[in-house]
Specification:
The protein has seven helices and four strands, in the order ααααββββααα. With about 130 residues, the protein is mostly helical. α4 crosses α6. The longest helix is centred in the middle third of the chain and has 13 residues. Bound molecules: protoporphyrin IX containing FE.
Length: about 130
C-alpha cells in the first residue's frame, strides 16, 4: 500500500512526515502538490520515480543538489500508489488543485515505455524549467 511503500523506499531520505532534511533532501510535504499543478510537473513526478534525478533544484526557498535514485524496479501500480500517497499525505490533500486526478498506473507505464528515456541529469534540467513558488 502507499504508506508502506513510502516507509520502505522514501522515508529514510524524505522523512516520516515528508519533511525532508534541510540542505540534503527536499521536502515533499507542501511541495509535491506544487508539481501536480501543471502537466510538466505531473510528468516530472513520474519521471523522478522511474529514472531518478540529479542537479540543482530549488524547493521552498532552499537549493538541493543531490542524487535521487531511480525506483524503476517498482511496478507501475506501486509507483502510482506512492505518488498518490505523497500527494495526499501530511495535509497535501488540501493543497491539490480542485481538478486534480489521481496518477494512474497507465500514465506510469507510458512514461516507462517512452522511446527516449531521460537521464537523471536531463530530468534535473527539465525540472529547472518548471516554475514552483
Ligand atoms: C527529489 C520523491 C526516495 C533523495 C525528489 C523529488 C520527488 C521525490 C518527487 C523531486 C522534487 C522536485 O523536483 O521538486 C521521492 C519518493 C521516494 C524518494 C516518492 C521513494 C520512492 C528518495 C531516496 C533518496 C532521495 C531514498 C535518498 C537516497 C532525493 C534527492 C532529491 C530528491 C537528493 C533532489 C535531487 C536533486 O538534487 O536533483 N524525490 N523520493 N529520494 N530525492 Fe527523492
Amino acid at each position: 500500500s502507499g504508506p508502506q511503500l513510502y516507509q520502505q523506499n522514501c522515508a529514510f531520505c524524505h522523512g516520516d512526515n515528508g519533511q525532508g532534511r534541510p540542505g540534503a533532501f527536499p521536502p515533499l510535504a507542501a511541495h509535491a502538490t506544487e508539481l501536480a499543478k501543471t502537466p510538466e510537473g505531473r510528468a516530472h513526478l513520474i519521471n523522478v520515480m522511474l529514472f531518478g534525478m540529479q542537479g540543482p533544484v530549488r524547493v521552498r526557498g532552499s537549493t538541493y543538489n543531490g542524487v535521487m535514485p531511480a525506483f524503476g524496479q517498482l511496478s507501475d501500480e506501486q509507483i502510482a500508489s506512492i505518488l498518490n500517497y505523497i500527494l495526499n499525505a501530511w495535509g497535501n490533500d488540501k493543497l491539490l488543485p480542485r481538478d486534480h486526478r489521481p496518477i494512474t498506473a497507465a500514465e506510469v507505464r507510458s512514461a516507462r515505455n517512452a522511446t527516449s528515456r531521460p537521464t537523471p541529469q536531463q530530468i534535473g534540467d527539465l525540472r529547472s524549467r518548471i516554475n514552483v513558488p
